[in-house]
Amino acid sequence: MANRSIVSISSYSHEKIQYLLDMACEMEAHPNRKILEGKVVATLFFEPSTRTRLSFETAANRLGARVIGFADPKATSSTKGETLKDTIKMVSNYADVIVMRHKLEGAALYASEMTDTPIINAGDGANLHPSQTMLDLYSIYKTQGTLENLNIYMVGDLKYGRTVHSLLMSLSSYNPTFHFIAPKELEMPQEYKTFCRQNGVKFIEQTDFTAETIADADIIYMTRVQRERFTDLMEYERVKDAYILRKSMLKDCRPNMKILHPLPRVNEIERDIDDSPHAYYFEQAGNGLFAREALICDVLGITLNDLRNDKTIIP
Ligand code: CP
Predict the structure, then answer these.
(1) 299 shares a domain with 175
(2) Shared-domain flag, residues 211 and 111
(3) CA-CA 20 to 30 A from 152: which of 40, 102, 137, 309?
(4) Would 262 be classed as within a structural domain?
(5) Sign of dihedral through CA atoms 116, 162, 61, 283?
(6) Is the peptide bond before 264 cis (omega within 30 degrees of 0)?
(7) Which of 30, 33, 129, 162 is catalytic?
(8) Which among 74, 80, 251, 271 is annotated as catalytic?
């Protein structure tokens, strides 16, 4: 079987995205199964995580697989100088799937070239976070009924935010209109704007963030300013409170507008928004379970048809 690693989903066709959305939907209908009984999923987290690691591990457990791995690289032999290549080759002896988060951009691609065991990129530096994108797409699809022709507002740290980079690439072929709202220091990197220009993807860069400017949004995708990516903490202090979504700003919003956030949140969404019908970020995180169940099955060659005919479902 060809290596089915998921390093990026940016180049996936609409058919493949729809197929994975259908798989996630099937998982949501029946999240507990034994379809992965006998399989081992390794979660290697060289960077901190709450949602991604726990939802991948929950996904594996709910599908009957066993989980090995680490959440703290300080407790591994990487502190003794073991290379990523050696770690991956060694874990490949133990696991059927490797889910990996690493601080270096390109680490997941590199790992996927070191082994035939499928790698799922759980975030590589400021680069990409494809499983987050899959759950974001699933959340958008569930709430809007389509991925087509949407006004998508991306707000906050658009420079280091790998989730917005991944989402931009995946939505770009669905005729979106992107609005990029960020401080100058954290604006969307040039390469993504060039990609948009070259591919006829509409985008507007703006600095205003008011009830008026977000009135036509279908999705507002808020992001945290990521302290850990700054080398100059003074610069972090200057920009950290630049864009805060306040309840008063939602008064003119479209009824079905949803606020997404990959989480964790610091202060960029005021807490009194949590009870608003526009708030969807906790449900979004919940969708991560179904999207990640789908991705683990996909890399193992388990098809949508297999899921629909699955006799191991636990009612
Ligand atoms: N969204 C996300 O990646 O969250 P964690 O860093 O907690 O995994």
Answers:
(1) no
(2) no
(3) 102
(4) yes
(5) negative
(6) yes
(7) 129
(8) 80
